[in-house]
# Entry
Amino acid sequence: MQAFKEKRPSALYSLVLYFLGFMLLWEWLRPLNQISSTEDTHVFVVFTAFLFLITYFQLPLWISFPIKFVALLYALHSLYYPDLFLSFQWVPHLLGDIQANIAMIWSRSWTELSSITRSLLFLVLLWLVSYLMNYWLMQTKRIFLFLFMTVFYITVLDTFTPYDAKVAIVRTVFIGLILVGILRIMKIVEKEGFSLMKGRFPVMWMVPLTVVIALSSTLGLLAPKASPQWPDPVPFLSALNNSDEDIPGNGNSFGRIGYGTNDSRLGGPFKFNYDEVFTAKVKERHYWRVETKDTYTGKGWESSERDQPLFLNRDHVEYNALGSNLIEPGGAEMEKQKASIKMTKRYPFIVSPGVITSLRAREDVNFLMHPQTGKINTFSQNRSTELKSYQMDYELPQYDEKRLRESGGDYPRYVSGLYLQLPAELPKRVKQLAAKVTGKLDNPYDKAKAVENYFALNNFGYDTVNVRAPEKNEDYVDQFLFNAQKGYCDNFSSAMVVMLRSVGIPARWVKGFTYGEYQETNKEYKTYKITNANAHSWPEVYFSGVGWVPFEPTRGFSNPSSFEEEIQSAAAPAAPAVPKDKKKNEMKPEQKEQGSDKAAKKSDSGVNIAGFVTLFLVLAAVLIVVLFRKKWLRQYYIWKFRRQKGTGTFAKAYHRLLYLTQLYGLKRDPAFTLREYAAYVDRSLDTKDMKVLTSAYESLQYGRRDSTDYWNDTNRKLWENLIKRLRG
# Structure
């Protein structure tokens, strides 16, 4: 038998394989915009297609690698940086972000990774998978394992998430079967040495294959389907999750997540509830605030408001009317926006995304704003009323970090009088901790960032179940900071407000909703669904000359507000700033799903992007180990037996050689004797070494001599040479 010599596949053959491989990989990216907050999947799809295209041209590594690397940078630039690509003004920010996140990776703080770093890791992962696809398609010509994983991935998403995979499954199976069929045909052609193809793509063979697959797929799609034989597991799992039983050992019964007005006693576990509250059509996603509270009681929050509510001119809401509650005139650059709200669950108030400039609703509705809390109630004929829908014009602030650092500590009397309040019985160690965290910093902004980052740097955990309410003699914040060190948004936000007040920085507690779950895009407007699970709380900090600025200390969440970048102080342990243009730089695909804010690690779909990336990385690692087992096993055995001596070594080495030859495709016919198989191996590898080693092995077996005599330098070199000749 003549040794097989590889021939480079035809251009058409390679193009068809790469196209089908890309279509198969695309099925992993299609669900992202439904199972996570990803809105720019097209960037990842285009980047993946570009990788396949460059690989198709078979460019040398020293050319293809730089091209792919530049494409990766351009993909990041498209997601996050609005400046011209060749201006390079965004490069220092990217490098700083990566440097800051390396420490988080080293400390295994995965939930604290920035969206930019997560996007970078995801793009690198796509690069790796595109290389593996090239290896599977063009070298091993085996794709069934990846096809099976794709079908399994899609079916799991179809079962446990809103993603409808009916068409996706048919499409995946159709593409996969064609791909498997082509690869099988080409393996037969190469193995048997058929000459009828003459290096061309087997069109005539593909026609019946495609017809059979298309016919079977069509029949499978149109045939009557049996009803499910097993009950849907999702309601069962939800029932377990929503059990009314108390948590063993904590003495607290479950609360029910959602927006409420009574916050005087906080703490304890809660149930997840994903009932829809409202939908919003907006250009940019952001938090939805309802009201603020200023008085911390040691157990929760209350409002000390005594001011009379103000009637708002719905057509032209005065800027100063909301000045004490949001941003001071001239305090930040403002971006004009519009929003359309459709309520599912009715409330006698509206949700506010920013500085409202006009409101549109039923003609008989009046809007009353409470100046201190910022809550805007709805009235009709002097009675509280609930709106089905309303629209608004508003402005979103873009904060200047330099201005925030220079704001100083000269606060208006009404601010210092209300928002530095603390209960007299607050434990001293809370104030001591706040002073320790902020002591080396010289401005309110860096101090606020230090407190915001304190929880992540000290491994505070996000938990909604194993959380107990404070006892009668315990302070809510003190118990969280020094005992529990885990909780949800109420714990984190309250702790930050109290710590900042302890060092003389005005702060307040804000209630509302996060941006919810992305639904669809219609022209330039995106639709988000906000549920009870999106109820959230966060702190706002006052800066002189600027106004109230939101922060986000809760683990697993990122501040959706826009900040103008400034080179950071070396003393400030602040997180990397978000670039100025929020429209281009809002947190992107690889950011952890924040769809259920009090359940930050669990979205409506039950899947988040961080989990998706982690699963993909684990699967890729397993695939690498399996698919490259030939190479690493070959090197491992050579390394292992070079160092072994003694009785039995030669027999073990010979058995490993038999295993490797069959692993590399030199299958042993059951009718072959060892000598016949050795002759077959020698013919295939163009050598005589296998016959020599087999003769020695037979002498060892039948002569019963000590195998040490056979594991000598000569036989070991023959053994190594045979292993090194194995290819494929």
